[in-house]
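re: that complex we talked abt at group meeting.

here r the seqs, copy pasted straight from the sheet so there may be weird spacing, ignore it
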Amino acid sequence: MAKRSYTILGTGALGGYYGARLQQAGHTVRFLLRGDYEHVRDHGLRIASMHGDFELPEVEAFRDPTDLPPSDVAVVALKTTQSGALADMLPVAIKPGGAVLVLQNGLCPERYVAGLVGAERVVGGLCFLCSNRVGPGHFRQVRFDHIRLGEYARPGMTERIAGIAADFCAASVQTEPVEDLSLARWQKLVWNVPYNGLSAVLDADTERLMAHTDTAALVEKLMQEVAAAARASGGHTIGASFIEKMLSNTAKMGPYRPSMQVDRQMGRAMEAEAIHGDPVRAAIAAGCAVPVMQAVYRQLRFLEDQREAGAGPG
Amino acid sequence: MAKRSYTILGTGALGGYYGARLQQAGHTVRFLLRGDYEHVRDHGLRIASMHGDFELPEVEAFRDPTDLPPSDVAVVALKTTQSGALADMLPVAIKPGGAVLVLQNGLCPERYVAGLVGAERVVGGLCFLCSNRVGPGHFRQVRFDHIRLGEYARPGMTERIAGIAADFCAASVQTEPVEDLSLARWQKLVWNVPYNGLSAVLDADTERLMAHTDTAALVEKLMQEVAAAARASGGHTIGASFIEKMLSNTAKMGPYRPSMQVDRQMGRAMEAEAIHGDPVRAAIAAGCAVPVMQAVYRQLRFLEDQREAGAGPG
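got the structure back, here u go
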């Protein structure tokens, strides 16, 4: 059987790294780019990584989504704040019977994609990756890289997610198929809600947040609210030991700036709706009070709208 | 009867304005100063105000509290973050049988003063004053100026608070004695907790906070938590109509920077313990959950300790 072809929709620090790994492992990979298009078309991609550095002098680069040949798997690697652009990219980017792999943050980024291509085509993935853009077409993976994959339309293990996971594993990306994508997403929110939210509001990295008694307590309180929401809304059990592990792992991690802090510093849109808004709404719809998560969400919405209004501190 | 003499402990935008008004009305007033001491000793005080501008070319200025002659009333006009300095100022600043008028923010700033001079000497006052320091010895009252006064040790009306209130009223400061100082302090916290806390965390003035749906909702939520804490801790009833009036009055007030926002902008200590810490502790001790007030308090503690550590954004 021919190797699966992939199209990376959004060649940033995440999509660029994973796509380059897949091409290095022998897959046909198409990269959709915007600002870096000309540079990457002419010079390819450069990757720095804890697994070794490499270059791909020639890649299939595209600027216009309508030029994309259909692939077996379209990888959604845009931020959720840019998901609106997917309407022009999908479903033209996938072959009949092909799949869309949604590598986005939040409670259920798959829902929007399902509306474009049909739920049965959608696979969700949670990325645990620290990477950043060094320059045009140049990405550095700093630590972690693993992915958890699951079916969107129906829980359980399938050949499709096993096959995609195997492709990524063969490309040096530790990837694990999971039976319950919804549980996996709530588990990831246990980390994302407190660290992204507080780092953005307080402009502080994870090390500072964990080094202070009050913010560490606030992180834990938010984790408990996410766990309560996961139980009320999804029937999932996320126990105290999971929360303790998240707290102690993060405390050991050293200084790390969550994406939302970086976005705020750079004046970019923050993923507050995907990471905070959707879980808050799910909790409230299930009758579960999440006062602190809701308060942080409201603070983020305020900050986001101040940014959009182009306002400085007032 | 001779007019009461006053000593202003802390000649800033608040103490400087009220003290100048009292001297203008014919009272002997002593002013304790630090940075502006020499300027005020040589040039006196200048006041700009909505009731008219005036100058006091000669004032009794002191730098060392031990030089202060005892007065009938010592007015505590320091921020609560500087209350430690009162141990050297009190009780030397008051005559035998004299009173201390505590014009500070918070749930119970009188408690610390009572420990220094005895509870029976203590009168509490809540100031509703917008004033700022224009330059050395030069203060501008912008709007509001009124004070609510009450006995600390035992609720009720006394000659003492009636007399002090009359002095302030005769000095063009609208002042009202109240029977229940504790209720008055909780009522003031209904405003102070949300606007000071959120303005400092989000660096936004009252107008911006009220103009955005999410922060306006967060303000209201915090007001409801303060009212619940007042009921649980003090047995006070603060009804929905009081909260609605606070919200609508503030929305009409135009842009105003609460003191805690200004303090954060200037790199000065914020009064988080007096305005947020004490009410949170009182609520929790009374078995009343105040999750959002506690979360904002934790954020303020974090920001305050970052400031003390001299850290920039991280």
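couple things i noticed - Chain B has a mean pLDDT of 95. The radius of gyration of chain B is 19 Å.
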